[in-house]
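Write out the 3D structure for:
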Amino acid sequence: MKKLHSLLTASAVAVTAVFASAVNLKPDSVYAAGQVNIMPIGDSITFGLGEDGGYRKYLDYSLRQKGISFDMVGPEGQNSASFKYNGQSVNYDNNHAGYSGFTIKQQYPIPSWGENGLLERLKSKDAVKKANPDIVLLIIGTNDMTANRNLNSIRRQCAACCELQ
């Protein structure tokens, strides 16, 4: 139980620190003038493993309900997908940069996963620069924690991921 508590605490710290440093907000006047580009980046949670679209489709739905003009951006997915919600078919923007099974940075390749470093994948696709997001939703570290990686190493990896733009 103590190890699980440490793991969950470390995960929360890593995700919170990364999110706080990753959000690249433009002046309020930019948002007032038009659309916000949102780039979901991460591992299977962002990819939507087990549930196509994962949290992204519900976020899309909620933002549309509030009348917020946005575009989900990223090298994966497509501009339109749909799912059933409250008995109705709902369309959502399915663009993202989520890669199931990926660690933050490739340090210990897992042969069955092949390339598994999120940082390396984003760099190889020049994903952040091409998408030009206003907001980055960075949810990473789960696979690093389950592989028992050092928390200080994870923090350094997160900082490197945030410097891509």
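The first helix runs from residue 2 to 22.
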